[in-house]
Amino acid sequence: MDPVLELINLVVHFHTQDGIVYAVNGVSYAAEAGKTLGIVGESGCGKSVSVLSAMRLIPEPPGKIVAGEIFYQGQDLLKLDKAGMQDIRGKEMAMIFQDPMTSFNPVLTIGHQISESSIVHFGIGQKEARQRSVELLELVGIPQAVDRFDDYPHQFSGGMRQRAMIAMALSCNPSVLIADEPTTALDVTIQAQIVDLIKDLSERFDMAIIWITHDLGVIAEIADRVVVMYAGYVVEEADVFDLFENPSHPYTLALLKSLPRVDTYSSEKLATIPGSPPDCLSLPPGCPFAPRCVYAVDQCRHENPPLDQSSFEHQIACWVDITTGRER
User: Fold this and answer.
1) CA–CA distance, 19 with 130 (Å, rounded to integer)
2) Cβ count near 148 (within 10 Å)
3) CA distance 99 to 181
4) Is the Cα torsion angle 312, 315, 320, 325 positive or negative in sign?
5) Which of 22, 54, 111, 173 is 20 to 30 Å from 12 at the Cα level?
């Protein structure tokens, strides 16, 4: 199946007073219709920057897409002008942001903000847009949607605001839905509801979902494939079951070992990853994870490994086979 959205060797820099921030360094991944691609990694690894680049929402300056290609259904988005991108953004590709309170305009009603996209992209009237927005609010589980249409963002709870944000993203039936840590600010009960809602919507509308998070528990529940990022690089990509069953990069293994387990009893403390993430202003030579890696060899400190196929549909960027401790 051809991907709906594909990033190929994307490179994004930010020019700051302190120097160039190497935020994304040759990242490639693809999202397919009806499938969920999970992107995981700690803060600052380039997860959000890569998808914001796909939406052409990187502020320029200071940001700049230095190299790479971004294809939406075969069309290179980096070659579109501003008007051409506006036709796609919101209509074909939509985004759910991390904090719905700051994503909504506090002085406009929820209904007005959900309706706006339909009016702009489809040219429908206010009455039809209102009806469609109410139906979307009902679809995402907002009770008494007709009455809540004219409420303001501060009148919604955190979970309801996130549902309204999803309704707004769905207003034009997009082919690609990007969720940028949509459950981070919510309690675990609401998180589970939002995850179930997006899974259901993906199946119902055959959308390609890109779910960005640092929570591997959510990834295990919702993703079909997983991309693991570190310091602006993709270090591992695999089917979700294969990734959890057979993590092949030291960083992925360390992340999984740091998760609390409920299926086994153990008095051992949770594992931690020593050291700190590298400064993207001055990335170290070689593999960026090498200073924190217990498997690192001399080659790791001098040469950054490419992302290579380790098995069927499983790619890693590592010089060492962590199951044997030997160099590849």
Assistant:
1) 48
2) 19
3) 9
4) negative
5) 173
